[in-house]
Amino acid sequence: MTLPNPAAEDSSPLGRRERMILAALAAALALLLFGLRGGLQPQAPLEQLARRSPELPLALASGRPTIVEFYADWCEACRSMAPAMAALESEHRGDLNVVLLNVDNPRWSPEIDRYGVNGIPQLELFDRDGRSIGRSLGARSRPELATIMTALIEETPLPLLAGVGSLSPLTGGEAQAAPAQTGPRSHG
Predict the structure, then answer these.
(1) Which domain holds residue 120?
(2) What is the pLDDT along the chain (188 residues), one digit of tens a residue?
(3) What is the tally of structural domains in the chain?
(4) What's the CA gap between 65 and 60, in Å, rounded?
(5) What is this structure's pTM?
(6) CATH number, position 162
(7) Which among 56, 75, 85, 99 is annotated as catalytic?
(8) Each residue of 18-29: b (16+ CB within 10 Å) or e?
(9) Is 83 marked active-site?
(10) Coil vs helix vs strand at 10
(11) Does residue 1 lie within any of the structural domains?
(12) Which of the following is catalytic: 46, 50, 68, 78?
């Protein structure tokens, strides 16, 4: 009785071809998995903006107008607005600061409280001297963002858009207690 010789099987064309097919299938599956997980794609616009965002105190002291966007990674409106914001931030780099503050990061709790953030996206608008001059609530289109940025850079009045307004203190007997509001992370 003749026993199979493993060395002879390794040298047979059939064994080598099977190994090559298996290696090719493994490589194809690895590439497919790599592609499905995002591959070598650059970061999404929201992540790009957040990473290159200057620190808030530096931005406000820079002598340039500043837009502070309160956002969250899970916020679809924030994500949909991000490509336009990123493109416009690139166009106006050097003339305007764009600062992103994630409402899910406890580091920004004082700013969330200070600016009364109760929904996202919320843009806080600052003049060249770092003074808060307006606010924008809700998602903005590229033309709306461009109009807001142009007004800040050219030091002209903020555009008349729904959800955009200048800030002014209440005076005299007009002030009333504000109703309790839920925070931006409460989903309520």
Answers:
(1) 45-168
(2) 656 555 555 555 568 888 888 888 888 887 777 666 555 545 688 888 888 889 999 999 999 999 999 999 899 999 999 999 999 998 998 999 999 999 999 999 999 999 999 899 999 999 999 999 999 999 999 999 999 999 999 999 988 876 666 654 434 433 333 344 444 444 44
(3) 1
(4) 8
(5) 0.65
(6) 3.40.30.10
(7) 75
(8) eeeeeeeeeeee
(9) no
(10) helix
(11) no
(12) 78
Query: CB neighbours (10 Å) of residue 125?
Result: 23
- Structure tokens that stand for 103 in this block: 């409402």
- 78 given a catalytic annotation: yes
Q: Is residue 7 part of a domain?
A: no
Does residue 33 lie within any of the structural domains?
A: no
In a domain, 36, yes or no: no
- Give me 83's structure tokens: 């490509």
Q: Which of 114, 122, 115 is nearest to 140 (CA)?
A: 122
- Cis omega (within 30 of 0) on the bond before 121? yes
